[in-house]
Amino acid sequence: MFTGIVEELGEVTAVEKLADASRFRLRGRVVTEGAKHGDSIAVNGVCLTVVDLGDGEFTADVMAETLDRSSLGALDTGSRVNLERPMAVGGRLGGHIVQGHVDGTGHIVERRISENWEIVKVSLPAHLSRYVVEKGSITVDGVSLTVVDAGTDYFTISLIPTTLALTTLGIKEPGDPVNLEVDVIAKYVERLLGNTAREPGEPVR
């Protein structure tokens, strides 16, 4: 379980393309401190399992399902990534409940720069729009954020200087993909109510 509070801006140091998966090596001295084989680390909001560790770097295997449903397949050597360790039991929930299970991807549509913050417009897949509400929570590339405006095919977020400086959201440009995870509570409520809001023909998840 994560909170969407990014601990470190890391870097991809190597990518090995396999037949039906990829193996990433990532640098992150903060998140690897005290980590061990089998631990979880969120990379751009995707929960990955640590395979090997050494000298402030770790490797993780990413299966085809994850590559298909997230933007990790677009990463290459030198790409910057948001890194977060799981929340410790008894720790503060600074953001919101984040599972590290990406629901889909969007892309940066527009950036509007203000004096003290920046408004970013992000495209929203149709099947996720019902879970995104004004002033609700959403995770973008692993960052817990509050929705400013929610449209049928987009939403906007307001980024403070700290977020711009310490996460990939400060360097993403229009057209760049981002991983999206909606609030899991909304999905559970929908399921309990019988999925009455499902689109025709959409499978029950």
Question: How would you characterize the overall build of this protein?
Answer:
The chain contains four helices and 13 strands. The protein has 205 residues and is mostly beta strands.
Keywords:
single chain; 205 residues; mainly beta; 7-stranded antiparallel beta sheet; 6-stranded antiparallel β-barrel; 4 helices
The succession of helices and strands, N to C, reads EEHEEEEHEEEEEEHEH
**How would you sum up the global shape?**
globular
Helical coverage, percent range: 10-25%
Q: In percent terms, what proportion of residues is strand?
A: 35-45%
Low-pLDDT stretches are: none
Instruction: Give the N-terminus to C-terminus distance in angstroms.
Output: 20 Å
Strand order of the largest sheet: 4-3-7-1-2-6-5
Residue-averaged pLDDT: 92
Using DSSP, what is the number of strands? 13
Helix count from the secondary structure assignment: 4
Rg on CA atoms, Å = 17 Å
Largest sheet: 7 strands, antiparallel
Structure class:
mainly beta
Sequence-ordered SSE layout with sheet pairings:
Layout: E1 8-17, E2 21-27, H1 29-32, E3 40-43, E4 46-49, E5 52-54, E6 57-63, H2 64-69, E7 80-84, E8 104-113, E9 118-123, E10 137-140, E11 143-150, E12 154-159, H3 161-166, E13 177-182, H4 184-192
Antiparallel strand pairs: 1-2, 1-7, 2-6, 3-4, 3-7, 5-6, 8-9, 8-13, 9-12, 10-11, 10-13, 11-12
